[in-house]
Amino acid sequence: MRTTVLAAMFLAALAGCGGSVGGKSPEATFRQWKSAVSDRSYGDVWEMVSAASKEQKAIEAQQLSEEAKKAEGPARTALDSTARFLGMSLDDMKKLDGRTLFIADMKMAAESGRDEWDRMSRAEFARADEKGDRASVYVRFEGREDPNPMPLVRENGIWKIDLPAVPLHLPKPGDIGSSLPAPAPAPEKSAP
To answer: How far apart are the first and last CA of the chain?
Structure first.
């Protein structure tokens, strides 16, 4: 599970830059990503993700924010644990936005699996298959090509990673594979 979370974070980081920074080719995007990941410039990495990926992260952040605002009892305790695990307070979680959640996810992945993150940050560009405004980037890890391509999409002439379906934040407390404790069940109320 740890490798899966790290791989998802790595894929999120493997993005083409946005705005005035960006790759005019999938390879240029890869090189800019590698620099940002090596420097642990997570705000720069955020600028490298596609609009659809940012929208998905904003939805995830809004859901966590709403849960934090109404959480009571054991649910509040569990969300407080999740917030601390992401390096923030429960009050911070109540004001969460997509960028903040993404950066917290990146930091958590880099810190919780340093050796794996460092290995992945040494990835080398292997090749890109372009089809219109979509591309698949293949990378080599330690001389071996990874068979799983990273999907890119061209937005306004800039290549960006397109990962709207990859959940980047940690599992919620109690989820299978989560290291966070499940909330205790609410005590049953006795009948009057």
So the answer is: 46
